[in-house]
Amino acid sequence: MSQGFHVVVCAGIVPDPLQTLQPMDTPQGPALKNEMMLPVVLDPWAWHALFEAAHLAKNTPDSKVWLVSLAPKAKLQQVMMGIAQKVPFELVAMDGPASGFTSAGAVAEKLATAIEGISELDRSRLLLFGGWESASRAAGATMQIVGERLGILDQFQGVDELRIQDDGSLRILERVEGGKHQVSTCVAPPAMLGWATGNLPEPPNNPQVGMANMRTIMPAIQKATASGLSVDGGEFLSIELPKQQRQTRIVKDAPTDDIAREIVEWIKG
Question: Residue 137 has what pLDDT?
Fold first, then answer.
């Protein structure tokens, strides 16, 4: 193919999965207790999208990757220090809340506006990547809305694999029921791909990539403007953690049928 791709990856940050999260009410709306003190990571779904984007750009000449993120500046800087050595990209940052209490539509509007502001972006070469789901904004609709906002009609969700064929078309594997994949062919960009897990391993750290990335990452974070995003448009009647329930009984030599019957009765109850 004569031209490479312009890949834009939308990625948020989320609390480290090993942390215990405690929701609470604030004057500004729902939030997490000590949210700014919690260690954070890049959204695991977006991790896969970024790896896939970097792999595609590496193997397709004249390609470039942008990472667009809406998150608190201080927290975003911490995360970027960790992933900067993984893959080359240019950061587009917006300062705003990273909690899951914001609406998908409002977040998508901010992301789309930021993408439209990328001066070098060629829409005819655009591949919009993101997580099929999210560890915080798990409405499963954010990337779809961003795609619609940018006028991208070819959208694929639950993507596990992308291959560029000899004629330049995109061969895409999307998850369907029963552990199977739907095979789709997209003639050319623009297209939106919501990634599931992909099939690539995590890239190793590369200090040279890290130094090159940090030259643009730090200025991008410093220039990040406030998104103005807030928790509105909905009312939360209650916020609480799921209640733990554990009923343990030790029985020896019970027949298998009796155990199965008891489990079914317990589930029905």
Answer: 61
